[in-house]
């Protein structure tokens, strides 16, 4: 499997996705500080107190990052799968002396792992910089504890996995239509729905676990259906 993934890395450049991840990290770090400064910019805001609480701040940042990386995952899936299995490229790909499921599995793993890993790296960078500056020059009135840091890391991990799964789910729509635009539009819609569903999970982890369980079940169904579609394709 690792040889097939290495082959995919040679065939497809990841530099644009690396740049997108870096831009996202810098932008979301600025977004984090902007959210933390709201109580100072508008003290009369009814919800200003929420923005001075670390769980709420990190939760909002993770949700926005999850939406961004789910779309990035869909873009990668479009490039690595939808385009590859369309037109003349599909003829070449399906003629490889390798099991079709193995090739598809390698592509899916690459897209999923990249989305999860990139968001984890991006989120970890944001949290590290923000929490270090909070220790030196605190902006929030909330108390920074080990429990808060661990909770933020746990929420980040869950959102990262969800971003990867949403990329797989949106791929299913685009793969059936053999359309890149459908894949991306589906990812935007899915990200919007999921973010709305777990917005309350910044304070309630059980809601997040339920959403993750549902997403896992649907992701497995989608992967099995993709295997079936690939096996049924004619050269």
**Which descriptor suits the 3D outline?**
elongated
What Rg do the Cα atoms give?
A: 20 Å
Q: Runs with pLDDT <50, length 5+?
A: none
Q: Roughly what is the average pLDDT, rounded to an integer?
A: 85
**Number of distinct beta strands:** 0
Amount of helix: over 70%
Verbal overview:
The chain contains nine helices and no strands. The chain has 235 residues and is mostly helical. The protein is elongated.
Structural topology:
Blueprint: H1 2-11, H2 15-36, H3 38-41, H4 54-82, H5 87-94, H6 100-136, H7 146-177, H8 180-197, H9 205-232
Structural features:
elongated; 235 residues; 9 helices; mainly alpha
Write a short abstract of this structure.
With 235 residues, the chain is mainly alpha-helical.
């Amino acid at each position: 499997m690792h040889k097939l993934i290495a082959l995919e890395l040679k065939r497809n450049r990841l530099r644009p996705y690396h740049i997108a991840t870096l831009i996202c990290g810098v932008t979301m770090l600025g977004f984090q500080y902007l959210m933390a400064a709201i109580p100072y910019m508008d003290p009369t805001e009814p919800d200003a107190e929420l923005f001075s609480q670390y769980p709420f701040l990190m939760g909002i940042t993770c949700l926005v990052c999850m939406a961004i990386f789910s779309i990035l995952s869909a873009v990668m899936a479009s490039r690595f799968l939808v385009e590859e299995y369309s037109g003349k490229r599909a003829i070449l790909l399906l003629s490889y002396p390798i099991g079709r499921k193995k090739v598809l599995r390698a592509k899916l793993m690459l897209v999923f792992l990249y989305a999860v890993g990139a968001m984890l790296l991006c989120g970890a960078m944001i949290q590290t910089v923000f929490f270090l500056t909070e220790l030196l020059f605190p902006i929030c009135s909330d108390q920074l504890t080990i429990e808060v840091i661990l909770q933020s890391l746990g929420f980040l991990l869950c959102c990262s996995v969800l971003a990867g799964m949403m990329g797989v789910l949106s791929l299913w729509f685009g793969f059936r239509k053999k359309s890149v635009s459908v894949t991306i539009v589906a990812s935007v819609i899915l990200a919007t729905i999921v973010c709305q569903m777990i917005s309350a999970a910044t304070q309630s982890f059980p809601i997040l676990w339920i959403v993750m369980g549902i997403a896992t079940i649907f992701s497995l169904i989608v992967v099995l259906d993709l295997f079936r579609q690939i096996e049924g394709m004619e050269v």
